[in-house]
Design brief:
Number of strands: 0
Largest sheet: none
Number of helices: 3
Strand content: under 5%
Oligomer: single chain
Structural class: mainly alpha
Order of helices and strands: HHH
Length: 89
């Protein structure tokens, strides 16, 4: 019986380069989560107010600019940079 690592190595040999790139991105994402798991805060504060209506324009969202609540903005932004995949046009 072969190990998972051996099975992966065999599969890598016959996999095209573009797919390998996606696999590598996903593996790095999983490794990042294993090192630094995503945590959720036990307390979530909500505010009363009107819901945003569907069909709103992008400019309607500007009133929320700069209103990040919490002290983890840089950490969340870094997670986005670490885990996003390259775009193809």
């Amino acid at each position: 019986m072969t190990t998972i690592k051996e099975q992966l190595l065999l599969a890598i040999e016959s996999t095209p380069e573009p797919i390998l790139e996606q696999i590598l991105n996903y593996l790095e994402y999983l490794q990042t989560r294993a090192i630094k798991p995503v945590t959720t805060s036990g307390t979530v504060t909500t505010k009363e107010g009107k819901p945003i209506l569907h069909g709103s324009k992008g400019k309607d969202l500007l009133k929320f600019a700069g209103t990040w609540q919490g002290e983890d903005f840089e950490e969340c932004l870094q997670l986005v940079y670490d885990t996003r995949s390259p775009t193809e046009f």
